[in-house]
Specification:
heterodimer, A: mainly alpha, B: mainly alpha, 10 helices, 72% helix
Chain lengths: 227, 245
């Protein structure tokens, strides 16, 4: 397998491929990582105020939840294609599409998290003279973290896998390699990129899980893990 | 937006709708693939899920399959199947991929629905002397119906989306209009195809929402709380586990 012939005989697993195209694989992985990071970060920045608005005014929550759900229904290939005329061929097309998808899960989870904060905790904080902003960031947000993080994990994992479809416009990270391998029937390229993609999703999920443990030290004592 | 106008013109041109590359033919392929695969997936997943839910075991398995599925890119699976020995068998790689991706939402929702059918009602029915089969048919299935339908709906939309992706490796369906547009660098055609695909996904979603409401065997009973609202643990995504494609 390692004797270089695997490139000629088109094996699924080919060490020679990984050795000779290391740079290409690294570049694709890095592109995949930054597209995912940008999408999830922007998604979080957009979802948070949306969730707060939807919580504050009931009139807003219906349209916000409805619209994000409808957006989630749109197939990714169509979503990226629809955004194409707006941004031209650029990474912005893929990132915007992924942000729109992330809103569905993030907004819902942030709202569910905030709704699960016990009223007594709010009352206690108000009694201690907490203003609305301090109440939000000092009490409500930390208590909503498990739900928020659960949403963030789902979003991140599906964003990693969806980024591959960006290959249609050339900004798909590892998806580019899968697309290229598909056209040339190059098995090792497709399998290696696919495996890296799944590995990336798993690593991201574990990192977020660790972050959640770190951010919610109280949850470890009172509950048996929050998934 | 010049492109929007041009996309509209593309859609309004009769010749784009006829012929083997036309919209009608692609739509037919898309719908045929969707319903064939959805039927296969239902036939495989629902009996297993209902049986497991009735016994009350295997739930972790269903949820884990869904979660693991989310990490695997649909596009990668399609291409891997295509390059495998199966690839020479026409539509089979696409069909297998579509069925694979439709199973998790079906399995999870049906399992949760049956398993969490109101336990007191189930116990009461058992006390009245119902057998296992009667219990499933007359109590658990009607109670689980809304959640099962949610799973079917999610799976249907999932299959529509995945059938679109099947165009990337050269499969049929509406996605072909988009990929053909890319190859011709014809942006209006790409946008027109995307509008058709998005529209189809929304229509399928709407049809299944309506079906779920109309067919619900419990819909005439008063005081029914929406089943979905009652069964959601706060820590989980409110949306049923969806594998977005």
């Amino acid at each position: 397998m390692a004797d270089g012939n695997c490139l000629i005989s088109n094996e699924w697993i080919c060490g020679e491929y990984v050795r000779t195209r290391g740079q290409e694989l690294t570049d694709a992985t890095l592109e995949h990582v930054w597209i995912t990071l940008a999408s999830v970060a922007i998604g979080l920045l957009v979802a948070f105020p949306l969730a707060l608005l939807a919580r504050r005014w009931r009139v807003v929550s219906g349209p916000v939840l409805g619209l994000t759900t409808i957006l989630y229904t749109v197939p990714s290939l169509a979503m990226f294609s629809l955004l194409l005329p707006v941004f031209g061929v650029s990474a912005a097309v893929v990132i915007t599409g992924l942000v729109l998808y992330s809103l569905t899960i993030l907004v819902r989870n942030i709202m569910a998290g905030l709704a699960s904060v016990p009223e007594e905790a709010r009352e206690a904080a108000r009694g201690m003279g907490y203003g609305p902003l301090r109440l939000l960031f000092g009490v409500e947000l930390p208590l909503a973290l498990p739900a928020l993080m659960a949403g963030l994990r789902i979003t991140t994992v599906s964003t990693v896998s969806l980024t591959t479809v960006g290959a249609i416009i050339g900004y798909g990270g590892l998806g580019n390699l899968i697309y290229e391998g598909m056209r040339s029937f190059f098995k090792a390229e497709v399998l290696t990129a696919s495996v890296l993609c799944v590995a990336l999703a798993v690593v991201a999920d574990l990192l977020l899980l660790a972050l959640q443990r770190l951010l919610t030290p109280w949850a470890r004592k009172s509950r048996k893990g929050t998934t | 937006m010049d492109v929007v106008a041009k996309a509209w013109t593309w859609l309004a041109t009769g010749s784009h709708w006829a012929g083997p590359d036309g919209v009608w033919h692609r739509l037919g392929q898309h719908l045929f693939l969707t319903f064939a695969c959805l039927a296969i997936a239902c036939a495989v997943a629902l009996p297993i899920a209902v049986a497991l839910g009735h016994i009350g075991k295997g739930g972790a398995l269903a949820v884990n399959i869904s979660n693991a599925g989310r990490a695997v890119p649909t596009f990668a699976v399609l291409v891997l199947l295509l390059l495998s020995p199966l690839g020479t068998h026409g539509q089979w790689p696409t069909i297998i991929a579509l069925v694979l991706f439709a199973i998790p939402p079906l399995l999870t929702n049906a399992y949760v629905g049956v398993h969490e059918a109101d336990r007191e009602v189930v116990e009461a029915a058992r006390g009245m002397g119902m057998t296992g089969g009667q219990l499933i048919r007359r109590v658990e299935l009607p109670l689980a119906f809304p959640l099962i339908m949610t799973g079917v709906r999610t799976a249907a939309v999932q299959v529509v989306a995945t059938a679109t992706l099947a165009a990337l490796p050269g499969g049929g369906g509406l996605g072909r209009i988009i990929t053909a547009g890319f190859r011709l660098t014809d942006t209006p055609q790409v946008v027109a195809g995307a509008v058709l695909v998005a529209g189809l996904a929304l229509v399928v979603e709407g049809v299944f929402v309506a079906l779920g409401l109309v067919l619900d065997p419990m819909r005439l009973r008063t005081g029914r709380r929406p089943a979905a609202a009652r069964r959601q643990p706060a820590d989980q995504a409110p949306a049923s586990p969806v594998l977005k494609t």
